[in-house]
Each structure stands twice: as structure tokens, then as C-alpha cells.
């Protein structure tokens, strides 16, 4: 073997060695990444399934729940009442509100379970803009520990141009799904900042993760998380920026709780046109809310329900 053969063998050896180091680095990086993802998932499943509830009353005496006469909002009201909170109930239908609020107790009609609690009923339609001064007046002076920005509306699935009374429907949707979140947070957050504690839950949807055909505007109002191309979207944007702006250093838990649509429903009247009954992939709102509340303050951005964590990475 002459000298040039030896040199080329040495170079080949070095090349193989470098390739083997690179492939080891790639393999171990992928394994490490997969391990982190797996432990992230297991942690979430455990917290949503078995985690302990925080003491909600330690954040304040009252919880404010928007859109609370049905579905997920009603379940938040009931579950927070069960955990000792007094509830400010805000919704549009006075008769339904009365059925929930005018009794001294919140009544769970399915199980006849009752919770002793004080309630304040505020009839308000979030499609209107002039409701906020009235709400502010009524909640003034109360020690509010939890705000649930839950109210939401969707139209029946239709192509964008075929939605009946599109101008009004789309405007209402933006006012109900987005404006309510901004205005209610702007109203309630200063009290939390002053005392240095509080919980804000913003309800989003998996329909906000990527555009959903036939639900264009609903999907857009639920802009809910950083997508693959890193476009920040409405609900996550407002959650994260307010957290950074105001709350991060002041002990306030700010959670964007992403409820699921598509195959990841919660079984409420909003979703019943897509579903026959509740099940593992579409829990009842009570099951969903219990799972979500376990995650406070441990998880900031979540799909809310343990099984949905297997279907949506949040
Ligand atoms: N269910 C799901 O699968 C699902 C999936 C993704 C996201 N979400 C989100 O979860 C939240 C709650 O949804 P849900 O399924 O529980 O809905 P829901 O069963 O239709 O209940 C909505 C609640 O909001 C009230 N409401 C509606 N429009 C209002 C307005 N203009 N002013 C005041 N109150 C109003 C309703 O009052 P009435 O009782 O008078 O109708 C009801 O109490 C929404 O933000 C929704 O986008 C739900």
C-alpha cells in the first residue's frame, strides 16, 4: 500500500467516524425529543385524570362565568360552586338565568345534586356593546378570584356566502366570541392584579387550530394556538400577551382552555347536531370541566380533557 492509499483510507475512516457520530447524535436527539413529548403527554393525562383541584376560594370569593345557562358554562358554574365559590352568572336568557340563579342553590337537574351558594344574576346579551358598564357596576366591590370567558356562538355549518343573514351573524360571532373576552378581562383583571392572584380561563376550540371549512368565521374567532408556521392566533395571542404584559410576575393564573370541536367535541347543544350521545371522545360538559379544573394552575394551555390530549397536542 503506497502513501496515497493510506491517506485515502485514513480519510475514509475519518468520514465513516464523522457519519457515525452524526447519526448517533440524530438518533439520540430524536429519542430525547420523543421522550420529552411522551413525558409531556403522560404528565398531562395524569393531571387531567387524577390531579388535585386547587383551592379556588384562595383566589377570591366570587367566580364570574359568561354564557352560564347551558353546556360548558353551566358546568363551570356548578363545579366552582361545588368548590365553595359564589357565582356571578352572566347570560342572555333571563328565564334560563332565573332557573339557575334565583334559587339559593345551583341545581344540577340531572343528578338533583345541590350546592349551597350565593349567586348574582346578570342578564346580558354579548351581541350588544352597551352591556359592559352595567356588568361593571354590578360586580363592583366583589372579591373576584376566577373569570371564565366561556360564552360562544357558532352558526350551522354552511359555505361562507350561504350563511343566512351573514352580516349580522358574523358580527355577532365576533362580538360574542372575541369582544366579550377582551372586555370582560379588561374589567376583571385589575382587581386580580391589585391583590396579586386570580385565575382567568379563556375558552377556545380545536376549530381554531386550523381553518375549518363551512365554519369559517367561527373557526377564525377561535384562533387558538401556535400553528406549525408559528402564526399566533387570537385566543392564544390575547392569553399570552396579557400574561406577559400584566400578570406573569403577579401570581395570576391565565389559562387558555381549548375545547374541542371536530372529532373532539364536548356534548352540549352547540355540538349536538354532530353527535348522538356523549362518549369517550365527546364527554359531557361536567366531565370535561372537572378534567379542565384539575389542571389549574399546572397547565397553561390545554385541550382541557384528558382524552383530547391524545388527539390534540396543546
Ligand atoms: N361543545 C363543544 O363541542 C365545543 C367545542 C369547541 C368549543 N366550544 C366552546 O365552548 C364554549 C361553550 O360552548 P357550549 O358548547 O357550552 O355552548 P352552548 O351549549 O350553546 O352554551 C352557550 C351558553 O352561552 C350563552 N350564550 C350564547 N350566546 C349568548 C349571547 N349572545 N349573550 C349571552 N349569552 C349567550 C347560552 O345562552 P342560552 O342558554 O340562552 O342559549 C348558553 O348559556 C363556547 O365558547 C364554544 O365555542 C364548545
UniProtKB/TrEMBL annotation:
Q: Name one GO cellular component term.
A: endoplasmic reticulum
Recorded hits in CDD domains, A to Z, give: 17beta-HSD1_like_SDR_c
Which key words are in the record?
A: Oxidoreductase
The UniProt GO MF terms for this protein read:
oxidoreductase activity
Q: Looking at the record's lineage, which domain of life comes first? A: Eukaryota
Family of this protein: Belongs to the short-chain dehydrogenases/reductases (SDR) family.
Q: What is this protein called?
A: Uncharacterized protein
Amino acid at each position: 500500500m503506497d502513501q496515497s492509499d493510506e491517506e485515502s483510507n485514513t480519510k475514509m475512516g475519518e468520514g465513516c467516524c464523522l457519519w457515525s457520530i452524526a447519526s448517533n447524535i440524530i438518533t439520540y436527539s430524536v429519542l430525547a425529543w420523543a421522550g420529552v413529548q411522551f413525558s409531556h403527554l403522560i404528565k398531562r393525562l395524569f393531571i387531567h385524570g387524577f390531579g388535585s383541584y386547587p383551592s379556588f376560594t384562595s383566589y377570591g370569593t366570587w367566580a364570574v362565568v359568561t354564557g352560564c345557562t347551558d353546556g360548558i358554562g353551566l358546568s363551570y358554574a356548578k363545579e366552582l360552586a361545588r368548590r365553595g365559590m359564589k357565582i356571578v352568572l352572566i347570560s342572555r336568557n333571563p328565564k334560563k338565568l332565573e332557573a339557575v340563579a334565583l334559587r339559593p342553590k345551583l341545581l344540577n337537574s340531572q343528578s338533583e345534586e345541590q350546592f349551597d351558594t350565593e349567586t348574582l344574576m346578570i342578564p346580558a346579551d354579548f351581541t350588544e356593546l352597551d352591556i359592559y358598564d352595567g356588568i361593571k357596576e354590578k360586580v363592583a366591590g366583589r372579591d373576584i378570584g376566577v373569570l371564565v370567558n366561556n360564552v360562544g356562538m357558532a352558526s350551522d355549518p354552511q359555505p361562507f356566502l350561504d350563511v343566512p343573514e351573514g352580516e349580522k351573524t358574523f358580527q355577532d360571532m365576533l362580538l360574542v366570541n372575541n369582544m366579550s373576552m377582551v372586555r370582560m378581562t379588561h374589567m376583571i383583571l385589575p382587581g386580580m392584579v391589585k391583590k396579586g392572584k386570580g385565575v382567568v380561563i379563556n375558552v377556545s376550540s380545536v376549530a381554531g387550530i386550523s381553518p375549518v371549512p363551512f365554519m369559517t368565521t367561527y373557526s377564525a374567532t377561535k384562533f387558538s394556538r401556535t400553528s406549525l408556521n408559528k402564526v399566533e392566533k387570537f385566543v392564544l395571542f390575547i392569553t399570552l400577551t396579557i400574561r406577559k404584559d400584566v400578570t406573569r410576575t403577579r401570581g395570576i393564573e391565565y389559562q387558555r382552555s381549548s375545547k374541542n370541536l371536530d372529532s373532539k367535541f364536548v356534548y352540549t347543544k352547540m355540538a349536538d347536531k354532530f353527535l348522538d350521545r356523549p362518549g369517550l371522545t365527546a364527554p359531557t360538559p361536567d366531565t370535561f370541566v372537572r378534567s379542565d379544573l384539575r389542571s389549574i394552575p399546572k397547565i397553561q394551555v390545554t385541550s382541557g380533557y384528558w382524552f383530547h390530549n391524545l388527539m390534540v397536542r396543546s
